[in-house]
Design goal:
alpha/beta; DUF1890 domain-containing protein; Rossmann fold; single chain; about 25% strand; UCP006600; about 45% helix; about 150 residues; 5 helices; 6-stranded parallel β-sheet; MTH777-like_sf
């Protein structure tokens, strides 16, 4: 299975380690993992996985390489309106199953992001109030992967 992970702006410290962790879980299930993000987000991922053990391909989020029929599943890390908009757009273009991992430290903003994703996609949603502590999302990602990859 080919999975595209879409990253938002790397303003939240938990995004990069959760990306590498999610990629790790996908790779042990023999998935091919591509990651799309802005240059800052991609540089953080490159530094976090210098030998590319968990990443097959890195893509600029604005490139024309992100098109239909290249991936089987989409996972998006969503922490603000811009990343929600990118995710909704990618979800529509790719027309594949998807998981949105929504996080924000502000309770109201988190709720609004979740509602935006619910209203505009059929994506499965994992959510948590988080900025620095990845544990609440790790547990939910683990549970999702256990169920999804059975």
């Amino acid at each position: 299975m080919k999975v595209l992970i879409m990253l938002g702006c790397p303003e939240y410290p938990i995004q990069t380690p959760l990306t590498i962790y999610t990629s790790y879980l996908l790779k042990i299930k023999n998935c091919k993992v591509s990651i799309a993000g802005n240059p800052a987000a991609l540089n953080l991922v490159k530094i976090s996985d210098p030998e590319r053990r968990y990443i097959d391909k890195l893509l600029n989020i604005d490139s024309h390489e992100i098109e239909k029929n290249k991936w089987d599943y989409l996972i998006g890390f969503i922490s603000n309106d811009a990343s929600a908009t990118y995710f909704i757009t990618f979800n529509e273009i790719l027309n594949v199953g998807s998981l949105s991992i929504v996080f924000n430290e502000d309770k109201k903003e988190l709720k609004e992001l979740v509602e935006t994703i619910k209203h505009n996609t059929n994506s499965k949603i994992i959510q948590a109030r988080a900025r620095h502590n990845p544990k609440p999302l790790v547990k939910k990602i683990d549970a999702f992967m256990d169920e999804w990859m059975e």
